[in-house]
Design a protein that fits this description.
The protein has helices spanning 12-27, 49-59, 75-80, 86-95, 129-138, 158-165, 202-209, 216-219, 221-224, 251-267, 298-314, 329-341; strands at 4-7, 32-34, 41-45, 68-70, 100-105, 120-124, 142-143, 171-174, 183-186, 193-196, 213-214, 243-247, 272-276, 288-291, 319-323. The protein is an alpha/beta fold. The chain has an eleven-stranded mixed β-sheet, sandwiched between helices. A hairpin with a 6-residue loop joins strand 9 and strand 10 (193-196). Bound molecules: threonylcarbamoyladenylate (TXA) and magnesium ion (MG). Residues 145-146, 154 line the site of magnesium ion.
C-alpha cells in the first residue's frame, strides 16, 4: 500500500483538501496517522470493528490492549459511555480538550474489539487543532493508539511514524510540537485512579475531584510485579534497541559509575550514549552525551524523551546510561516511560 504523507501548511485551502481526504479514508474504514498535543495517533473509525482490526495488524499490537477513542465534543461522551459520573464532568470541564484520558463504563455502541474485551472505554478530547479538526470534519469517533510499532517509542515526529508504518497505513498527517502521552484516569469505580501518569498530575486532579489514587503498578510495579489496570502498561514499551540503564543516587557517584562503565564499554568497541541534563552534562568525559534540557524544566525532558530514544536506534547505540529525572509532577511521567524503556533496570 502506498502511504500518503500530507503536510498541514496553515494554508486553509490546501489544509481543507487534506482533511477531506483523511475523512474519506476514515469513513471508508482506512487508517490515518495524525498529530495530537501528546504523540501521533494511528486513527480508525472507533465504531467499525474491521477498521480497528487494521490498527492492531499495522502496529503488531496484542488484541487485549484496548484503544483510546478520540472525540471533539461532550455529546460523544454520553454516546460512548453508559454512565458519566459527576467527577468525569468536572474533569472534562477543567482539562478537556487536553492530555487527559478517562476510563468510563462503555455503552453498547462501543465494540469490544477496541476495549480489549473490557466493559470500560477510554475517551480523550485532544486539544491539538489538527486532531480536533480531523475528528470534527470526518464525523467519526477516532480510535487511536500511539502511531508506533508495538514496543517502540511513541512517535513525536512524522518521520517516526513514516519509519514504523509507511506502506502499512493509508495516510500520515504531518505537523509539529508534541511530547508524552495523556494521563489516564479510571472513573469506572468509586475512587478515581491514575492508570498512566502524564502532564496532568495527581495534585491537579485532587483540586477538582478530591481523593485520587495512583495504580500501585505504577509506583511499586518495578519491585512487586503488580498487575497494572491499563492492559498496555504491562508490556515493555518505548524500547530502544540499545541496552538502557538508569543510574540513581548521589550525583557524584552516578557520574563516576557512568564514566567508568562508559570507558570500559568503549574500550571493548561499543557505542555508548549518556542521557543527562544541562546542569551535569559537563561532568561526563566520554561517549555520546545527550542533554534532556534543564533539570528544573520537566517539560523539556518530556518533549525530548521519545525523540532521543529513537535517535539511539538511528545511531546504532549499544549501551545507554541515563541519570534519573525527578519523580514529581511531569517528572513522574518521564521516569515511568524511562523505566519501561529500560525494561526496569535501575542501578
Ligand atoms: O496521549 C495519548 O494517550 C495517545 C494519543 C494518540 O492520544 N494515545 C496513546 O494510546 O498513548 P496507546 O494505545 O498507546 O495507550 C493507551 C493506553 C494503553 O496502556 C491501554 O491499555 C490503556 O490506555 N487503556 C485503553 N483503554 C483502557 C480501558 N478501558 N481500561 C484501562 N486501560 C485502558
Ligand atoms: Mg502506545
Amino acid at each position: 500500500m502506498e502511504t500518503i504523507v500530507a503536510d498541514i501548511t496553515c494554508n486553509p485551502k490546501e489544509d481543507e483538501k487534506i482533511y477531506e481526504k483523511a475523512g474519506e479514508i476514515l469513513r471508508a474504514g482506512g487508517l490515518v496517522a495524525f498529530p495530537t498535543e501528546t504523540v501521533y495517533g494511528l486513527g480508525a473509525d472507533a465504531l467499525d470493528e474491521a477498521a480497528s482490526a487494521k490498527i492492531y495488524a499495522a502496529k503488531g499490537r496484542p488484541s487485549d490492549n484496548p484503544l483510546i477513542v478520540h472525540i471533539a465534543d461532550m455529546d460523544a461522551v454520553y454516546k460512548l459511555a453508559s454512565e458519566v459520573p459527576e467527577a468525569a464532568v468536572k474533569l472534562a470541564d477543567k482539562f478537556w480538550p487536553g492530555p487527559l484520558t478517562m476510563i468510563l463504563k462503555k455503552s453498547d455502541i462501543v465494540p469490544e474489539s477496541i476495549t480489549g474485551g473490557l466493559g470500560t472505554v477510554a475517551i480523550r478530547m485532544p486539544s491539538h487543532k489538527v486532531a480536533a479538526e480531523l475528528i470534527r470534519s470526518s464525523g467519526v469517533y477516532i480510535a487511536a493508539p500511539s502511531a508506533n510499532t508495538s514496543g517502540k517509542p511513541s512517535p513525536t515526529l512524522a518521520r517516526h511514524v513514516i519509519k514504523d508504518l509507511s506502506g502499512k497505513i493509508d495516510m500520515i498527517i504531518d505537523t509539529v510540537d508534541i511530547g508524552v502521552e495523556s494521563t489516564i484516569i479510571d472513573l469506572s469505580e468509586d475512587v478515581p485512579t491514575i492508570l498512566r501518569p502524564g502532564f496532568i498530575t495527581k495534585e491537579m486532579f485532587e483540586e477538582v475531584v478530591g481523593e485520587v489514587r495512583i495504580d500501585p503498578a505504577i509506583t511499586d510495579g518495578v519491585k512487586a510485579g503488580v498487575v497494572p489496570k491499563a492492559p498496555g502498561m504491562k508490556y515493555k514499551h518505548y524500547a530502544p534497541d540499545a541496552d538502557l540503564k538508569i543510574i540513581e543516587g548521589d550525583i557524584d557517584k552516578v557520574v563516576s559509575y557512568i564514566n567508568d562503565n562508559t570507558r570500559k564499554l568503549m574500550d571493548e568497541g561499543y557505542k555508548v550514549a549518556i542521557m543527562t541534563t544541562d546542569e551535569t552534562k559537563h561532568l561526563y568525559t566520554d561517549g555520546i552525551i545527550i542533554s534532556m534540557g534543564h533539570k528544573s524544566d520537566e517539560l523539556s525532558a518530556a518533549r525530548h524523551l521519545y525523540a532521543t530514544l529513537r535517535e539511539f536506534d538511528n545511531e546504532h547505540i549499544d549501551y545507554v546510561f541515563s541519570e534519573s529525572f525527578e519523580t514529581e509532577n511531569v517528572g513522574r511521567a518521564v521516569m515511568n516511560r524511562l523505566i519501561k524503556a529500560a525494561g526496569h533496570t535501575i542501578i
